[in-house]
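This part of the workshop introduces the protein records we will be handling. As an example, a complete record with its sequence and its structure tokens follows.
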Amino acid sequence: MKSQYQISRIDKREADSILSRYHYLKDISKGFKSGYNYGLYKDRILVGVCIYTGFPVPELVKGMFDLERSDQDGFFELSRLCLDPLVQKQEHNIASWFVSRTIQELRRTTTVRSILSYADSDFHQGTIYKACNFTYYGLTDPKCDFWIKQPSGSFIKHSRVKTKGVEGEWRPRSRKHRFVLIFDKTLDIKWKM
């Protein structure tokens, strides 16, 4: 029953306790950006995390809505969502229930004009975002990442450092499904559906 669950703001350390165990990027990504971090609790035990951050670069808002830097407040990315798999299996629709309530709380505490979320095509299709009334805007453009060769012969993904003179290889990045929720009805999204 959903009445057994509580939602509250949490810090980055608490969020990491779930993300480092269950999130599909735990072995790929070197970390995550903290922002408006929400925790899902059952019987006082943290069982889920939902994090909203600002858009990673101002060019994204420019490309989506043709807005200049001076007009980019209120744009958020749902950058991390993770639930204990056992809870997700036992409690029907808990993920969309959790996301919808964190959106309500985010809107209660700050101005929210739009929320963007990605679903990595290698891992999921964004069913939760569809259930929360996000609109689908296709896949991101194809991109590549540089992977640095280690002395052991393995490779690690670089973190936006210079690659000149570094031994490694370029690999295709998985494309992301784009989902957008717009609250500011004056916004006109430029992306095609």
Observations:
- Strands lie at 5-9, 36-42, 45-54, 75-83, 114-120, 135-139, 144-149, 155-157, 168-172, 176-182.
